[in-house]
Prior knowledge:
The chain is built from 8 helices and 6 strands; from the N terminus they run ααααββαββααββα. The protein has helices at about 5-10, 25-35, 45-55, 60-65, 90-95, 135-145, 160-170, 210-215, and strands spanning about 75-80, 80-85, 110-115, 120-125, 185-190, 205-210. The protein has a 4-stranded antiparallel sheet. Strands 5-6 form a two-stranded antiparallel sheet. Strand 1 and strand 2 (about 80-85) form a beta hairpin. The longest helix is centred in the middle third of the chain and has 12 residues, at about 135-145.
Amino acid sequence: MNQSQYYDISRKSNCVLRCPILDYCTRRAFTIYFFSDFHEIDHENNIITALQKEHLLPRDFDENRIPLSGEAVVWSKKGSFLYYYNVCPEVNLFDGENGLRFAKGLASCDGDWDNERSNKFINIKNKHYTECLEYNNYIFKNKTITKRKATSRRNTITKAVRFAILQRDNHTCQYCGAKASDGIKIQVDHIIPVAKGGTDSLNNLITSCIDCNQGKSDRIF
């Protein structure tokens, strides 16, 4: 599954184009740690600390982390052979720095490499983020937990935060893919609406065109 196919699934599912919980997902953190061989140099044997030192995780990761759900991340590398299972598919698909070079551009969550084979890499399984238990548990929790009573006052998104979100999302609507460069009016939207307990934290904000924002209203996808 390549990026175009991945985006198509997001659109058909009426979801944002990319996983909205990446910054605080433990599965993604473990995937980066093993793919980039941090385990070979991390003498403290602390995945979170090692990644934070390289600015790959936010400083408040521990306070806001989304724990592993279901299958453990499996990684083995011996000589010319390696295999991996249950990793975050967005690392290979989008992360050119930390993804595996032979799986680059694929939403590969299971695969193996054997340097002795003619067909060295076998991509065993692709996955979209909507299939991940971490994402589904996060959405379920935020749909069902008791929310604070909504008021008429909306949280204020500062200009600096708005600029950071637009830069992060490349001024592109994360629902439909429309771009500001095409003359489309772009806004910053709350994934979990303020009326339902959403905050102004960066992981709850995404770029949206005005049509998608108005169409979504206060629903949670």
